[in-house]
Amino acid sequence: MSGHIHAHHADIAKRLKRAEGHLRTVIAMIEQEKPCLDIAQQLHAVERAITQAKKTLIQDHLDHCLEATVGEVGASQRKPIDEFKQITKYL
Q1: Where do the coiled-coil regions begin and end (predicted)?
Q2: Could you say which of 1, 34, 72, 73 would form a disulfide bridge with 29 (CB–CB 3.0 to 4.6 Å)?
């Protein structure tokens, strides 16, 4: 599925660009010797943005690539797939 654009790729790119902006701010804050608490808050924002981007990417992949690979299956075979998709939300 290389090169395939999923529904949320644009949202993921937007989120990562926002994180990139936050990271630039953090670097500037460190260089300007801003208070550690302020720097930590900005780092936390970067971390959250990247974590959410990763979760969205994984869920998007599962919703499109896994479903395309598995195809139509019966209810008994569907349950482990649905559970797998649900548990990945805790990554």
Answers
A1: none
A2: 34
40-54 residue pLDDT tens: 999 999 999 999 899
Give a three-class secondary structure readout of the chain.
CCCCCCCCHHHHHHHHHHHHHHHHHHHHHHHCCCCHHHHHHHHHHHHHHHHHHHHHHHHHHHHHHHHHHHCCCCHHHHHHHHHHHHHHHHC
In contact, 26 and 43? CB cutoff 8 Å: yes
pTM of the model: 0.71
| 76-88: pLDDT as tens digits | 788 888 888 888 8
Q: Which amino acid is at 64?
A: H
Residue 3 domain flag: no
Query: What are the distances in angstroms from CA 44 to CA 2, 5, 32, 48, 77?
Result: 32, 29, 19, 6, 40
Question: What's the domain count of the chain?
Answer: 1
| Structural domain contains residue 62 | yes
